[in-house]
Specification:
Diaminopimelate Epimerase, Chain A, domain 1, 4 helices, globular
């Protein structure tokens, strides 16, 4: 890696959605290469020792004429991801807040074009079309068979319905499923889901082990969407679907069967704007 001094005092933004936090950097001049992006993600996303985040996002110029901008998304471990629902809501809030673009608009990701609407703190995004749906897969972990379901909502997700959600050793089981032979080479995110009911209304509680973070996160937008989509397809819940995340926020998932689209809606938090200092890169 070349001299790190050129990253010192680089401007960044920190936003959060449902407990997922992100560092966002404007890179329209392409001064930061993808290789440097991987390095910066591993340095800046470190919890307690740097800025701390679940992911690092660069905003760049798009290729598609329909898109206002493009993003490059890096997980905390430096791996590049195609899509992130909560990250998408954060970047949409940011570009409207700082006056770059007025919603509604499309932006470009490796998973395809993402549509976004911003209404103050609340942001609604249309994910890419769900694909590769597989129902009732059997995954064997620790001599136990897990009845599982799979769908790609921009990134791959396994969904497992589990009644004793709080007792689940999610990081142990989640990691084994994430690296399971069935999902090689790219691996998968893993969602454990319980159907709850309050005041006659059903909703989902979801815990997610995220690929790239390699741990449970407080929320996952594409994971909540995958869980809602599969629960709806199995006839277990009505549309729209409310999802209670580990961080305590309720996301609303809308499933449009005619257009084969999933819409993810929830609040965002603009945490702060700052500059990278030398100690954050050590």
């Amino acid at each position: 890696m070349e001299d790190l001094r050129r990253f010192i005092d680089l401007n960044f933004y920190k936003l959060c959605a449902s407990g997922n936090d992100f560092i966002i950097i404007l890179n329209f001049d392409k001064k930061i290469s993808p290789e440097e992006g991987k390095f910066l993600a591993k340095k800046l996303c470190r919890h307690k020792f740097s800025i701390s985040a679940d992911g690092l996002i660069f905003l760049e110029n798009p290729v598609s004429p329909e898109a206002k901008f493009a993003w490059r998304f890096f997980n905390a471990d430096g791996s590049e991801a195609e899509m992130c629902g909560n990250g998408a809501r954060c970047v949409a809030r940011l570009v409207e807040e700082i006056g770059l673009f007025k919603s509604p608009f499309y932006f470009e990701t490796k998973a395809g074009l993402i549509y976004a609407e911003v209404k103050g703190k609340r942001v609604k995004v249309a994910l890419t079309e769900p694909k590769d749906l597989q129902i009732n897969l059997s995954i064997k972990i620790n001599q136990q068979n897990f009845v599982s379901h799979f769908v790609n909502t921009g990134v791959p997700h396994v969904v497992i319905f589990w009644d004793k959600l709080e007792e689940l050793p999610i990081e142990e089981i989640g990691a084994k499923i994430r690296y399971h032979e069935m999902f090689k080479p790219s691996g998968t995110n893993v969602n454990f889901v319980k159907i709850e009911e309050k005041n006659g209304q059903k909703f989902l509680k979801v815990r997610t082990y995220e690929r790239g973070v390699e741990a449970e996160t407080l929320a996952c937008g594409t994971g909540s969407s995958a869980s809602a989509y599969i629960a709806y397809k199995l006839g277990l819940i009505e549309n729209p679907v409310n999802v209670l995340t580990r961080g305590g926020e309720v996301l609303t998932i809308y499933i449009d069967e005619i257009e084969n689209k999933i819409y993810l809606e929830g609040d965002t938090i603009f945490v702060f704007e700052g500059k990278i200092k030398e100690d954050a890169l050590r």
